[in-house]
Design brief:
It is built from five helices and six strands. By secondary structure, the chain is α+β, with helices and mostly antiparallel strands. A four-stranded mixed sheet has the order 4-3-5-6, with helices on both faces. It has a two-stranded antiparallel sheet with strand order 1-2.
């Protein structure tokens, strides 16, 4: 089994945990932010979670403040925002760093396992066009980047931030993983 299950995490409510409770499930890990142009993706992620959680999909939200300070709040602020604005019911974790010297070990595993995201070019080009500093190739580009993890804990897909929860490429990849024994 994969090492991702042993990495210490905290829930938004401050409880110490790991990904062990999600062993045997298909996971979609997403670095999220409350004050980003992509924040409305919470709605699609929640819809996908409600549709497929009974089939074994877990969406895991990892708030990150790495990109233009777009997740400045406390864990309590984030929890309140997610609940009142988007009625988020999928698991959310305490804020982590997804790039840089303080990158969380989980995101180190994710980016090493899948150095390229599907459809990363257009988003990168738009950020550069607007003069926004971008992460080096291979690193998480922006908020709402998605990592797909198989039932046995292997990172099997990576999707650019502007690939939404209803994108046929993402849905097909999730369905393929859910169909595996």
């Amino acid at each position: 089994m994969s090492a991702i299950y042993d990495i210490p995490l905290r829930t938004l409510s401050g409880e110490a945990t790991t990904l062990t409770p999600y062993r045997g499930k298909v996971l979609l890990a997403v670095n999220v932010a409350s004050k980003c142009g992509l924040t409305p993706q919470y709605e699609g992620l929640e819809a996908l979670y409600r549709e497929k959680s009974g089939q074994g999909l877990e969406i895991l939200g990892f708030p990150a403040n790495n990109f233009l300070g777009q997740e400045p709040g406390s864990d309590e602020d984030i929890a309140n925002f997610c609940q009142t604005t988007f009625d988020v019911t999928f698991p959310m974790f305490s804020k982590v760093s997804v790039v840089g010297d303080d990158k969380h070990p989980l995101y180190d595993i994710f980016t090493q396992a899948q150095p390229e995201a599907i459809s990363a070019g257009p988003m990168r080009e738009r950020l550069v066009k607007f003069g926004i500093p971008v992460s080096p190739e291979g690193e998480v580009l922006w908020n709402f980047e998605k990592f797909l993890i198989s039932k046995d804990g292997q990172v099997v897909g990576r999707f650019a931030p502007d690939v939404t929860a209803d994108d046929p490429r993402l849905v097909a990849a999730i369905d393929r993983e859910l169909a595996k024994a």
